Amino acid sequence: MLTEAENNKKKVGEAAVAYVKDGMTVGLGAGSTVNMMVETLAKHLHKENIQIHVVPASIHTERLAKKFGIPLTDFSEVEQLDLMIDGADEVDQQFQLLKGGGGSLVREKIIASAAQELLIMVDESKLVATLGRFPLPVEILPFGWELTAKKLAELGAKPKIRGGEDKPFVTDNQHYILDCSFGEIPNPQSLHNQLKGLVGVVETGLFVDMVSTVLISSDGEVSTLSKK
Ligand SMILES: O=C(CO)[C@H](O)[C@H](O)COP(=O)(O)O
């Protein structure tokens, strides 16, 4: 028996796989919504007799795709993807995203930047007027992370090392993540630019002007918001 949250993830995943067509190269993000969607995608490919190739954004997503027999590819073979399907931690009214709660923001952003369309799956609770309720994940180099945290604090954040100082969480890229509470982020592009200007910052979880379509689940129903 699925919980309400799991059912919402299942339904939004079912809606997302309908965008996957024969011959596509598809990026798959990371996180619990994507995890649930991978099995649904495998069933969709089988049922519709569709052949695709997938670029996964995390080692975990890669393992899941392999488990369900979904063919993989990478950037040594493809330059452009037709579609990227991913989750998000927050979506604002301008379709700007805050991502990285699952720790895969760098690879997700690389794949999304190579995709013609970025399709985001969320439940209603992730829609916000302004980004910033969820602490912003910032991927950083482990070397000198304490200094990078201080620099982020000088820019107004309250940075916390993910996993704790004794055993920081290590990303698939062998980096750390600082979860940074900035309060409201009215101008995501400007904050992103400021953070990227710091030595030691690899990437931020702000995905600005990348999304075309957001699928939103609520009470087991899915609605679609598309950017004009
Ligand atoms: O950005 C992400 C991973 O880096 C995830 O897409 C985001 O954290 C949402 O995850 P979930 O589907 O578990 O709520």
C-alpha Rg (nearest Å): 17 Å
Structural class: alpha/beta
SSE series: HEHEHEEEHEEHEEHEEEE
**How many β-strand stretches?**
13
Q: What name does the CATH topology of the largest domain carry?
A: Rossmann fold
Number of helices: 6
**Count of individual domains:** 2
Oligomer: single chain
EC number: 5.3.1.6
Keywords: Isomerase
Protein name: Ribose-5-phosphate isomerase RpiA
Enzyme class: isomerase
Descriptive notes:
Keywords: Isomerase. This is Ribose-5-phosphate isomerase RpiA. Its EC number is 5.3.1.6. It is an enzyme of class 5 (isomerase). With 228 residues, the chain is an alpha/beta fold. The protein has two domains: 4-127 and 208-219, 3-Layer(aba) Sandwich (Rossmann fold), CATH 3.40.50; 136-203, ACT domain (Alpha-Beta Plaits), CATH 3.30.70.260. 30% of the residues lie in helices and 25% in strands. It contains six helices and 13 strands. A six-stranded mixed β-sheet has the order 2-1-3-6-12-13, with helices on both faces. Strand 12 (213-218) and strand 13 form a beta hairpin. Helix 1 crosses helix 2 (32-48). The protein is globular, with a radius of gyration of 17 Å. Ribulose-5-phosphate binds next to helix 2, strand 3 and helix 4.
Architecture blueprint of SSEs:
Elements lengths: L3 H14 L7 E4 L3 H17 L4 E4 L2 H9 L15 E5 L2 E2 L5 E2 L6 H9 L4 E6 L12 E5 L4 H10 L3 E4 L14 E6 L6 H9 L4 E4 L1 E2 L5 E6 L2 E6 L2
Parallel strand pairs: 1-2, 1-3, 3-6, 6-12
Antiparallel strand pairs: 4-5, 5-11, 7-9, 7-10, 8-9, 12-13
The structure holds ribulose-5-phosphate.
Enzyme class: isomerase
EC number: 5.3.1.6
Protein name: Ribose-5-phosphate isomerase RpiA
